[in-house]
Design brief:
Number of strands: 0
Structural class: mainly alpha
Radius of gyration: 36 Å
Order of helices and strands: HHH
Helix content: 40-55%
Shape: flat
Number of helices: 3
């Protein structure tokens, strides 16, 4: 049983009684009783004594296979237009670009303004 926890719960209970707050008193009493019941029903943890022996698992097999699953010379080809967005994300992006183009009067942001 932890003395700090008992003091805290008792303080909550006394504060509820002193300030005439019934809900705080009821909650404090419930928590204090639950803590005492839980602390008494918990089995004590054995201290010291004989510890269990931990034995390592020894595997006596050798790996028979290639030294590496990767080839010695690897090449990677990447498509520059590769996009992982879903179809609806692409559609919303296209709709946003079209709305931006329409609000700019048919001009894109890259085109310089000719006045």
């Amino acid at each position: 049983m932890d003395i700090v926890t008992v003091i805290l719960l008792t303080t909550v209970l006394v504060l509820g009684l002193y300030k005439n707050i019934p809900i705080l008193s009821v909650v404090g009493m419930f928590l204090l009783v639950a803590y005492f019941y839980g602390a008494r029903s918990a089995k004590p943890v054995p201290s010291g004594g004989k510890r269990p022996k931990v034995r390592p698992i020894i595997v006596q097999r050798r790996y028979k296979g290639p030294k590496s699953i990767y080839p010695s010379d690897m090449k990677m080809y990447v498509d520059s237009n590769w996009n992982t967005m879903s179809w609806w994300e692409k559609a919303l992006g296209g709709a946003g670009q079209m709305a931006g183009w329409a609000t700019q009067g048919g001009k894109t942001m890259q085109e310089p303004d000719q006045q």
